[in-house]
From TrEMBL:
Gene Ontology MF term list: metal ion binding; metallopeptidase activity
PROSITE patterns associated with the record: MPN, UPF0758
Keyword Cell membrane included in the entry's annotation: no
Top-level taxon of the source organism: Bacteria
Protein name, entry field: RadC-like JAB domain-containing protein
Keywords from the named record: Hydrolase, Metal-binding, Metalloprotease, Protease, Zinc
Coiled-coil regions listed: none
GO process annotations (BP): proteolysis
The MPN domain, residue ranges: 23-149
InterPro entries membership: MPN, RadC_JAB, UPF0758, UPF0758_CS
Keyword Phosphoprotein: no
Amino acid sequence: METKVNEIAISYSGSIKTKLLPKISSSRDAANLFFEHWDKQNIELFESFKMLLLNNSNKVKGIYTLSTGGITGTLVDIRIVFAVVLKSVTTSIILAHNHPSGTLQPSLPDKSLTEKIKKAGELFDIKVLDHLILTPDGDYFSFADEGIL
């Protein structure tokens, strides 16, 4: 008797030419790009967690929304982070989430999650370049700029 199993297909489709992709050179570049693509009607209502997927030249392959949550938090599954990163053949990432309250300071869970993702990335030679906290007013906090990454 033959055992049946599902076949898994993995794909990534990038239709923009590499020379046209935006390049990230600073936390401000990343924050501006995240703000440009964030839902402005919801940024002060609930938390969302996203990531920029970058190639080896720090050009943006895409933005992926990992989760949306409640007023004071959102759940991020590290396995999904790396499923997306590996599927897109990404070499580095920049994380971002919003604080609807307008508070720029990272919480202990923010710091812990960042550290877990960074350590997991090291196993795959994937760099976590930064983690940004965005506020509805357009301000941001950069883990890298503050030396806590």
